[in-house]
């Protein structure tokens, strides 16, 4: 009850209605009492008790016109505002507006008031014989009350309309509607009704994507971010309840089958999507991909937001132990990486790898070693692809992300620890040409960092595997790698980025193990630098490549 009263007191209607009504009634009562104090006895009774046909006609003539004018103003203003919002965000706003109960109730109230006043005015009859005259006294009073309410409602209603059309609230309304349709349990529904719910949920995803695309075009980062978050929240809310839904919900048939994203798929892919029960996740991630393409090179923050949202969907699939949905998330992460590399958008690839690695670490912690190993294989592929495209920073980023995965695998005692290390050592096996040495140096630094981790843990054999992989390196190259890693003495990077760390940094306690590792290489003597502040490493990306972590 207390919550209900609080909600009522905080509503858009109560305060303005109360203030306007109190001020209006107080003014009228004060002035009327002053008038009546100078009138003959019985004046108060005459206020409502006596009314001639002329009085009624005069009152209703003005009342009906004012109510009709109010109705016209309300419809005109609302139509203009709604149309502008629909043009800017999504055409669905018009449908949402006229489906909203409050909007329908207010407009219906104005229409009823206008029609009621019209018929009251028609009912007034004046005859030569006063006994034959008819004055609908209560109808006139009712019209006055309706007119009063109409005038009082106008201001708060316009306030409600503007609030209704706030972009954030539009997005939230669409999201809630999509979730409601997706999670509504079937209770004797026909196939057509289930298909209608599927289409409503699908439509919600598409309209959210449309709002995001329009926001990117208008450089409105706030709205674009909210739409990405709304798509993510819709799927995350849906994921835990999939097992409770009617099997017919997961069928791709009827109008859903005619959707552009499904009609273009071959029967095998469509059948797998249906058997995996992942059409809604697939559709949501397709919307992400569409927004991702538009945001590339235009709004890096939205690219990062999409990567974060995709990771959250993956975590929801992981929590629900939905391997099929997780596999779909991984496919879209791979697609993001392909799009970023094709566009040569290094910051986009950097941000996607960061979120992709976070997901890989959670998968590894869950004990799904095979999935984590698959992700590591994808990392290796994109590192080698970036290497061939001379995107050195991407290859280096992948190497240090794989280093982090290998360290976590060791801490967890994962069954796939050795396979992950083998995968890591294969990253630099392709296209080793002189002009692409910079990215390979980054890979070697990541491998050296992992070797010092193993040595700190007393795992000599694992460190030796890395040494054997590097034993053919040139001494001068190894020496410079060692010196550069020793020169990095702080883990805080001097620029703002999402990771906020320096790739090559190793803790002072591991410096001794760094020396130990390099002692295994013969002919590696020469001056070494062990001191100095943060420096720009040799493997740093060019300025156009985005933020660098070390």
UniProtKB/TrEMBL annotation:
<keyword id="KW-1133">Transmembrane helix</keyword>
<feature type="transmembrane region" description="Helical">
    <location>
        <begin position="12"/>
        <end position="34"/>
    </location>
</feature>
<keyword id="KW-0812">Transmembrane</keyword>
<dbReference type="Pfam" id="PF10011">
    <property type="entry name" value="DUF2254"/>
</dbReference>
<feature type="transmembrane region" description="Helical">
    <location>
        <begin position="66"/>
        <end position="86"/>
    </location>
</feature>
<feature type="transmembrane region" description="Helical">
    <location>
        <begin position="144"/>
        <end position="165"/>
    </location>
</feature>
<keyword id="KW-0472">Membrane</keyword>
<feature type="transmembrane region" description="Helical">
    <location>
        <begin position="106"/>
        <end position="124"/>
    </location>
</feature>
<feature type="region of interest" description="Disordered">
    <location>
        <begin position="525"/>
        <end position="550"/>
    </location>
</feature>
<protein>
    <submittedName>
        <fullName>DUF2254 domain-containing protein</fullName>
    </submittedName>
</protein>
<dbReference type="InterPro" id="IPR018723">
    <property type="entry name" value="DUF2254_membrane"/>
</dbReference>
<feature type="compositionally biased region" description="Low complexity">
    <location>
        <begin position="531"/>
        <end position="550"/>
    </location>
</feature>
């Amino acid at each position: 009850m207390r919550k209900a009263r609080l909600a009522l007191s905080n509503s858009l209607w109560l305060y303005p209605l109360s203030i306007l009504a109190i001020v209006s009634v107080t003014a009228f009562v004060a002035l009327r009492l002053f008038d009546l104090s100078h009138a003959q006895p019985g004046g108060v009774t005459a206020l409502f008790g006596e009314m001639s046909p002329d009085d009624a006609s005069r009152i209703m003539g003005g009342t009906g016109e004012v109510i009709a004018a109010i109705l016209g103003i309300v419809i005109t203003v609302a139509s203009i505002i709604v149309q502008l919002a629909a043009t800017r965000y999504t055409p669905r706003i018009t449908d949402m507006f006229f489906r909203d109960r409050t909007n329908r109730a207010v407009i219906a109230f104005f229409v009823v008031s206008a029609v009621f006043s019209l018929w009251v005015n028609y009912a007034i009859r004046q005859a030569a014989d006063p006994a034959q005259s008819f004055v609908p006294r209560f109808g006139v009073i009712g019209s006055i009350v309706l007119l009063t309410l109409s005038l009082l409602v106008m201001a708060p209603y316009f306030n409600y309309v503007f609030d209704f059309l706030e972009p954030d609230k539009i997005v939230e309304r669409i999201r809630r509607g999509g979730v409601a349709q997706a999670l509504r349990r079937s209770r004797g529904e026909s196939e057509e009704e289930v298909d209608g719910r599927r289409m409503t949920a699908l439509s919600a995803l598409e309209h959210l994507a449309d709002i995001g695309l329009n926001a990117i075009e208008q450089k409105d980062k706030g709205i674009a971010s909210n739409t990405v978050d709304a798509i993510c929240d819709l799927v995350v809310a849906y994921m835990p309840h999939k097992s409770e839904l009617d099997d017919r919900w997961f069928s791709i048939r009827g109008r859903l089958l005619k959707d552009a994203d499904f009609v273009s798929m071959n029967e095998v892919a469509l059948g797998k999507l249906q058997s995996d029960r992942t059409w809604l996740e697939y559709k949501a991630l397709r919307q992400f991909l569409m927004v991702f393409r538009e945001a590339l090179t235009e709004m890096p923050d939205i690219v990062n937001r999409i990567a974060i949202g995709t990771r959250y969907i993956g975590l929801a699939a992981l929590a629900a132990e939905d391997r099929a949905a997780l596999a779909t998330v991984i496919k879209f992460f791979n697609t993001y990486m392909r799009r970023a590399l094709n566009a040569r958008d290094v910051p986009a690839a950097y941000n996607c790898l960061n979120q992709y690695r976070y997901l890989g670490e959670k998968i590894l912690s869950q004990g799904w070693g095979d999935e984590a190993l698959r992700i590591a294989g994808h990392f290796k592929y994109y590192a080698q692809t970036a290497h061939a495209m001379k995107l050195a920073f991407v290859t280096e980023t992948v190497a240090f992300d794989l280093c982090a995965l290998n360290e976590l695998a060791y801490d967890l005692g994962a069954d796939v620890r050795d396979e992950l290390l083998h995968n890591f050592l294969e990253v630099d096996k392709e296209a080793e040409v002189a002009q692409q040495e910079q990215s390979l140096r980054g890979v070697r630094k990541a491998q050296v960092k992992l070797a010092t981790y193993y040595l700190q843990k007393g795992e000599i054999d694992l460190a030796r595997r890395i040494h054997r992989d590097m034993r053919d390196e040139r001494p001068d190259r190894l020496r410079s790698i060692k010196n550069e890693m020793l020169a990095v003495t702080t883990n805080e990077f001097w620029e703002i980025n999402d990771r906020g760390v320096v790739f090559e940094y190793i803790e002072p306690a591991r410096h001794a193990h760094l020396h130990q590792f390099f002692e295994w290489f013969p002919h590696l003597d020469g001056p070494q630098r062990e001191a100095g502040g943060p420096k720009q490493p040799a493997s740093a990306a060019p300025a156009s490549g985005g933020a660098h972590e070390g």
